[in-house]
Structure formats: C-alpha cells, structure tokens
Specification:
Length: 287
C-alpha cells in the first residue's frame, strides 16, 4: 500500500482528490485500490469528513491523465470494427478510455460534493475501485494483442474523445445534475451499448473477441450496480430538495444538452439498475 493510502482514512475524500490528480494510469489504479481497501477496513468508524472542502492545487489539473491518448472531437473518432486486428484493438481502446474516465468521475463525486451521508462517499469509492479493475482488465487485453508489424498496443495508442469529462465539468456545481446526467444518463448508455458490442464480437468469433466478451460480461454486471447507485442518490437528492424526479430530469437534460440514449434500450439491465417503467417509457419516446 502506498504512503498516501496508509494515512488515516478519515481524510478519504482528500485522498480521492489526490488520486484524481494522478496522471499515470498505473499509479492511479494502484492508489484507488489501496484507498478502497483502507476504507473497507474502517467499516466500524467514519472514514470521511463530509463537511470538508478543498481546492485542487493550481499545478495539478483535473483530471490527472497521461499525455496520450490524443483527445479529439467525438464526431472525428473513426468507426471501430471488431472484424480486423486493428479494429478490435481500437474498440477495446475506446472502452478502456471510458473506464479510465469512469475512475475519474467516481473520484470527483467523492471529493467535490460536501454534506452528503457517508454512504454516498463509500458508494463512489467502491465504484472507483471497480472501474479501476475494469480498466486493468481491458488494458491487459489490449496489451495482449499484436498488430500486423508485431507491435503490441497499449492505452494511448488510439485517439479518443472527452465526452464523459465534459459533462463532469458541466455539472461540477450541481450534485443533482451530476447524479442525473453522469451515472444515470451517460453511464447508462453503456448498459445499452454493451450487448450490441458483444454481439459483434461473437460474430467475429476469434479467441480474442470471445475473451473481450467475457471481460464485458464482468463490466456489464458491475455497471448495473453503478447506475443503480446514481439512480438511488438522484432520487434521494430530489426528495431532500422537493424536486419531482422525472420533471427535473427532463429539465436537466435540456439545460445541459445531454445526449439521448441510443436504441435499443437494454430494458432488463436498466430495470435492474433502478429505472422505473415510467422512466423507461419516457426514454423510449425520446430515442
């Protein structure tokens, strides 16, 4: 365990900010895992200070991330086909990038928003640790692939976009919007997309494609829980602030120009993640 994670976990929110600013993926993953282990070991006492507030150091931009991949506009990212070796690598890289961003999104929720119940911070620290595991599984798979020239790929070798963190920035001053538009909107889109990606990989039928399918099974299982956490805290916040969840969700989607779901919706996964039949009917209408 690193020195930072060995410190008293009474400052777990400060440590979340620390690991958020780390640019090296390996360092970030190791730190997040160690922090979550330390928090779990403190199950009999408080591990956070909900009232504390911090400001990131001026020389530590948010989020911490490596120089590569190069970030481009979402529309400029080329299509990724799993039916060629390079296309398979590009597809895995794209999902790997999403999971790296998801680590940062979870850590940001922990440090940024004061005044929440301790369960909120524990929930998002667990999410950060699970996203770190997803990133590692995908990166290891990417590193196992060999291109036509014999070179092995790694995270950073393909261009990517910054759509997830852009929404994180938009909702930085509104925890209700953050819960509404990051886990239960953007991350929920992953519930819809994953079975479609798996179907393409199965059609490719190679050993590496089937290995990727197995990794996506793990990710889909965990992501249902992550979206459920977002749903639960969104509704809790709406109740606390006297907001009608459906009406406010529609308002936030318009206000922040949130991307719409892409059909077909994975209704089974969304129901398990806590979406109501009314919410699903609304989403079906707008796709």
């Amino acid at each position: 365990m690193t020195a930072a994670a060995q410190a008293s976990v009474s400052d777990a929110r400060a440590q979340a900010l620390h690991w958020l600013t780390q640019a090296d993926p390996d360092t970030k993953v190791q730190g997040v895992r160690a922090l979550w282990q330390a928090v779990q070991a403190e199950s009999d006492r408080s591990c956070v200070d909900p009232a504390a507030t911090w400001a990131p150091a001026a020389d530590r931009p948010l989020p911490g991330r490596p120089v590569r991949p190069r970030l481009i506009e979402p529309g400029a990212v080329p299509p990724r086909s799993p039916f060629t070796t390079e296309g398979h690598a590009a597809l895995i890289h794209a999902i790997c990038h999403i999971e790296f961003n998801a680590i940062n999104l979870a850590l940001d929720a922990v440090w940024r928003f004061p005044g929440m119940p301790e369960a909120f911070y524990r929930d998002w620290l667990r999410v950060a640790a699970e996203e770190a595991e997803h990133f590692t599984l995908l990166r290891d798979h990417l590193r196992s692939l060999r291109g036509p020239d014999g070179r092995r790929w790694d995270y950073g070798d393909f261009d990517a976009h910054d759509g997830l963190w852009t929404m994180c920035d938009k909702t930085a001053r509104d925890i209700v919007a953050r819960m509404a538009l990051v886990p239960r909107t953007l991350e929920a889109r992953g519930l819809d997309a994953t079975p479609l990606i798996q179907a393409k990989l199965r059609r490719a039928g190679t050993a590496t494609a089937l290995q990727a399918c197995a990794i996506l099974d793990i990710i889909l299982r965990d992501e249902v829980g992550h979206v459920a956490i977002g749903n639960r805290w969104y509704r809790w916040l709406c109740d606390q602030q006297g907001l009608e969840p459906m009406a406010h969700f529609r308002h936030l989607m318009r206000l922040h120009r949130a991307p719409l779901p892409k059909p077909p919706l994975n209704t089974d996964a969304r129901l398990r993640a806590g979406f109501t039949a009314t919410e699903l009917a609304f989403l079906e209408q707008i796709v």
